[in-house]
Design brief:
mainly alpha, A middle domain of Talin 1, two-stranded antiparallel ribbon, 13 helices
């Protein structure tokens, strides 16, 4: 029964997230909002809505490991699985904004998150700090890009709907996200118990891959079609949004207790993968993430997941690292 609940919840989340984006973009177009603003707000929120609703549901229902692990695991999955699979199919072009603005912001968010959880809790004021920084960053991007041409493929591909249909889609999708998150969290908790593993392990692997499934599917399909508008910036932007909006909003609603000894290992891996990605995309000679680099990212993901699943001694390593960081 728990597997049916998990799969049903995941399916409802994926479908609801897709139609939430479609309805939101159509309404934004109806009111003549620019494609840039739509892409940075409506699309970004819609694609991260599954992670947001899952995390809120998990935190409120007393499953903080799922609330937190879902975000960290999704960020690891985005870089090491989605980008690696895509790069193995087709080299991914790197735009300068990914290096100049997006990547530094992702690193800032990741480091802040690590610092915030050292007291074993992500409190409301820390979540508010993350969310306000995100709003400032979005304002900066919108202001900076006002004079640049708007070529946001994700927005342009969404079919225009009438206002009534768009509102109905948003209403149904929002309800779907709520029900889907409830099913997924309940199913994941039961699976963790039946397998005899921690909710942390389930959230970092199965739940994270599940909530990242839309991005993974879209990236692979685009690569198979040889489309060149696959963007590393979109993946980095998703990671920024996951930390600063998903965890920011969730912790403002309910403080998230976190075992920083266990999760420090995962955040350090998240930061390590971000640094590895920077070394790959920095234009030493090329401006592409190539197949060899994609293969290395995939190898890093396999190593990480293997260590998580087979119970590597996280606590002793994380404890040593925490003592080192704290001086």
């Amino acid at each position: 029964m728990e597997y049916i609940k998990f799969i049903a919840g995941l399916t409802i989340l994926v479908v609801s997230g897709k139609y939430l984006v479609q309805g939101g973009v159509s309404i934004a177009r109806y009111f003549n909002i620019s494609k840039l603003v739509i892409g940075l707000t409506v699309v970004a929120f819609g694609t991260s809505a599954p992670e947001l609703i899952v995390s809120i549901n998990a935190a409120v229902s007393g499953n903080p490991e799922i609330a937190f692990g879902n975000v960290v695991g999704s960020n690891i999955t985005n870089i090491a699985l989605i980008l690696s699979f895509t790069a193995l199919l087709i080299p991914i072009p790197v735009h300068k904004n990914s290096l100049r603005f997006d990547w530094p912001m992702m690193m800032l968010a990741s480091v802040l998150l690590y610092v915030f959880i050292l007291n074993d809790k992500l409190d409301w004021y820390e979540g508010a700090t993350l969310f306000v920084l995100l709003l400032v960053y979005l304002f900066f991007l919108i202001t900076k890009s006002e004079k640049e041409p708007e070529t946001l493929g994700d927005v342009e591909k969404v079919k225009q709907l009438s206002l009534g249909v768009s509102l109905l889609l948003i209403l149904i999708s929002s309800a779907g996200l709520a029900f889907g998150a409830d099913f997924l969290v309940d199913g994941a908790s039961s699976i963790a118990e039946s397998w005899g593993v921690s909710k942390r392990v389930i959230s970092l692997t199965i739940v994270a891959i599940g909530t990242s499934a839309p991005e993974l599917t879209a990236s692979i399909i685009a690569a198979l079609k040889k489309e060149t508008d696959i963007s590393i910036g979109n993946i980095i932007g998703s990671n920024i949004f996951n930390i600063m909006a998903v965890l920011g909003i969730t912790s403002m609603i309910k403080s998230i207790p976190i075992d920083h000894i266990a999760f420090s290992f995962d955040i350090i891996w998240m930061i390590f993968l971000a640094i590895l990605l920077f070394l790959f995309i920095y234009p030493f000679k090329t401006v592409f993430l190539n197949r060899a680099e994609g293969l290395l990212l995939l190898l890093a993901y396999i190593i990480y997941v293997s260590m998580v699943l087979f119970g590597f001694d996280f606590e002793s390593i994380s404890s040593s690292l925490s003592h080192l960081v704290s001086g």
